[in-house]
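Table S2 (continued). Query chain:
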Amino acid sequence: MAPDASLGKILRLIDEHGWAVVGVGGGGCDCAGCDGGTDEGTDDGTEFSYTVGLSTLGFPEVITYGLPQRVAQACLNRIGQQVSAGKPPRVGTMVEHVFQGLRGYLLDASDTSDLVVVGQIYPEVVAAQLIWPDRHARFPWESGYDRRRCPQPLVGRPPALRVG
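Corresponding output:
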């Protein structure tokens, strides 16, 4: 499908739902009726997904790396639903009710270059990264985090580690 047609579908999803989710790598976009995001993922092959439209609701767009498209879409839609309901999560903190039984973390994203569709629609790109824990509930900035099984590059500065 032509890029203009894909962008049109994303814009229709934003009009209908308030946001859309674009998936890149690992099978493309999983959002209903959307076939955007046909790139191959990051330079290291990690697939990622991100929202388009949350910024019109006064919240940063959200990107997450390394999750299967359907899982990422469900998590990003949960955040979109919280924002839409007037109960947005706070960036720079742990988030609840996004992953099934696990806490996540919303990291302020300083590198927004992967949010290509957002940049095509909005003049400014502001984003947060949804970070997911490994099977031991550790995050990428914590000692012992399983990088091989849980690849997710950080596109922002990790929180300061507490000493003691």
